[in-house]
Amino acid sequence: MNNFTFSSSPSSAILKWLSAGIISTFTERNFEYSDQPDNQIKLVFHFLDEDNVRPYRRKAQATFVVAVLESKGAPYDIFKEVYPFLIRSLANHLMYINHRDEQVDIHFLTPEQGCYSIKYKKGEEEKDFFMKIFQRLQPLSTSKLVIDNEFDEDLPSDKWNGDHITEALSKSGKRLDKMDLLPAPFPLEHYLNKRDMRHLNKLYGIGGLSYGNLSARSDQNHFWMSASGIDKSNMNDVGKDILYIKGYNSDANQMEVSIPPNVKPKRASVDAIEHWMIYKEHPEVGAIVHIHAWMDDVKATEINYPCGTLELAETVAQLVRDADNPAETIIGLKNHGLTITGPSLENIFQRIEGKVQRQVPMN
User: Fold this and answer.
1) N or C: which end of the chain has fewer CB within 10 A?
2) Cβ contacts of residue 30 below 8 Å, gap of 6+?
3) Number of CB atoms found within 10 A of residue 7's CB
4) What does the DSSP 8-state code read for residue 189?
C-alpha cells in the first residue's frame, strides 16, 4: 500500500480544508495516511511559509514531495515568482493555491516548468475537485525514477576526443540555441544554500537544471547523448558534455555510461532511459531531440510523469511504437515539450524548423 503524510500542521482555514479533503480522497483510494513519516514514506505534502521557505529533506529518492504554497493577496507570476519556491523547497512538484471571492485556484507546477490549473467555486461538489487533485498526483507519486549512473572507464581510445557523431551533436546544440529553444540552465545555486545543494547532489546527483537534450546513435547498442545540467549550446568534452550510453542495468536500475580514463564525468540526462528504449526497439532511429516547445497536431502523453521516470519512458516509447513511422515521429509530452525521432539529426531539424511554437500549451 502507498502511504502519505504532511510535513507539518496546516496553518490556515483553507489549508485545513485542503488537507482534510486530501486525506479523505487518498485514503479511499488505497493510500495510507501516516502522522509519523519514516524513510519508507511515498508522498509528502510540504507546507511552505513564503517568508521563510524551509526545504523538506527527504531521506530516500523514492519519496515524492509536493510543496504547498498558499498565496497572500494578488496572484503571483507563476514562473518568475512561484518557480523559485519549488526549487527552494527541494520538491518534485508544487501546488500554488490562490483563493478569493469564494473561488480556489490551484496551479500545479513542475521542475520542467510545466503548469496547469484547476478551480473550485464554493457550492460545487467537493469530491470532484479533490478527485482532480488525486488524479494529478497519484501517477506521479508512485512512478519510478531511473537517474542513477554506473560509470566505467572503458570507452574505446579512438572515441576519447569524440568522433563525427559528437561533432554533429555539438553543432545541433548550437542550432537549438539559434532557434531560441535552449532556456539557460536554471541557477540552483542562486536559490539554494550549500547544505541544500549537497543534499540534492547526494540524492539525485543534481548540480544544476537545464532543459532539453539530444542524442545520436553510435552503433546497434550504443548512443551518444548530451549530459545533464549543461549548456547545450556549448558541448565539447567527452565524459562531461557528451556521454557514451551503453545500456541500462534493470537490476541496479542504473544507466551504464562509458567514459575516458581520468575524467570526472557529468551525469547522464534523466531522459537517457527514454532514448535507450527507443533506440533498442527501433534500429532505424538514428537520432532523438527533446525540446521544451510544441507543434500542432502531435500525439501526446496523457499524464505528465516526471522526467527520468520509467513510466514516462515507457509511455513515450509506446507512442513511438504506435506511430505510422517510428523513425520520423514527433511525440508530445503533456505540459512539458516534444520528443522527436529521426534517422539523423539533420533530418530532425529539417522537419521542425519554422514549425515550432516556443510556448508549451498547458492544460
Assistant:
1) N
2) 1, 2
3) 18
4) G
Grid look-up 502519505 returns 4
Looking at the chain, how many residues does it have? 363
Nearest-angstrom CA–CA distance, 249 and 83? 34
Give one word for 94, left, alpha or beta, with left for phi > 0 and alpha for psi -120 to 50: beta
| Distance of alpha carbon 296 from alpha carbon 356, whole angstroms | 8
Residue 2 CA from chain centroid, whole number: 22
Return the C-alpha cell found at 114.
510545466
CA distances from 303 to 129, 140, 146, 260, 292 (A): 18, 8, 18, 38, 16
> Does 210 score more than 90 pLDDT?
no
What pLDDT was estimated at residue 61?
86
Distance CA 232, CA 182 (A): 7
Tens digits of per-residue pLDDT, 284-296?
Answer: 999 999 999 999 9
Beta strands in the chain (DSSP E): 2-6, 31-33, 43-47, 64-70, 93-100, 103-109, 115-121, 148-152, 213-217, 223-226, 242-249, 254-258, 287-291, 299-300, 330-333, 337-342
Strands 337-342 and 287-291: antiparallel
Backbone angles phi, psi at 61, to 5 degrees: -60, -35
C-alpha grid cell for residue 188?
540552483
Digit-coded pLDDT (tens) for 304-349:
899 899 999 999 999 999 999 999 999 999 989 999 999 999 999 9
- What interhelical angle do 126-141 and 13-27 show, nearest 10? 70
Strand partners, 337: 333
- Whether the model pTM is above 0.85: yes
